[in-house]
Model the fold of this input.
Amino acid sequence: MALEQDIAKLIEASNDLTTIVDNKIQDIDSKVLSAKSTVDGYISQVNSYIDSARGKQSHFRLTKNQALIPNADSTFPLHWSGGFVKSAKVVETVTTGVEVDQRSALAREFLQAISSDAKYFAGSFKIWELEYYPNRRGDNINTSAYLMYQYLRRPTVITAGAVVKHIKGVVPTGHWCSGLEANQPAKICGQLIGHSGRNHYTHCHPYVNGAGKPETETGIIQVALPAVVTGDVDLTKKQWGQFAYLGDADQPAYN
Done:
């Protein structure tokens, strides 16, 4: 009888201990969840601040002639080097101060890409059509070609971008053509480029990876407002436009 009582007491004590442990576990779980919720809240606040700060950055242009003013003989945009572009021509001059319904469909398409389909915007610019080779002709046919570019001094973080529309041929990629899609409406293309060091330079040319294609199989794109600017521009939010030029005194911006 005494043994049975002892066993009963042990069972009761075990049950009590189990209840205490369960309660402690629930208490710990509750505190962990509460702490996690607090941390998640802090993380959300930090992310929200970072996102808002990203949109508040000042960006300055490192390349010249974003409006693509032609050179003296109107064969190419001033200050831009040709790369493996076969031919170039202005297809549209998009002018501020014009009523929206009086603009061409192409002009409106390019303005819509940067949320500027209105009567007034930052300043007039030109849309160029570039015909380019699929690879480096006269070189190694398996070597990528590249499009127009500029030399620029390279700070730590830069964003290359442009409004681009693919017409035909190999789709260029990288720099101000990054993210371009075949046969789609004009869109902001570009990429964030991070570099170590500051006393360096780069050339902002998209690549044409048309290895093995015949020289006659050229491609065509239409482009407006190409540039490289300082800092991180959120291109997913159509945050592109005409940026203030930051350069040497003897190198005019040609806005």
Notes: Residues 2-55 form the longest helix (54 residues). The mean pLDDT is 85.
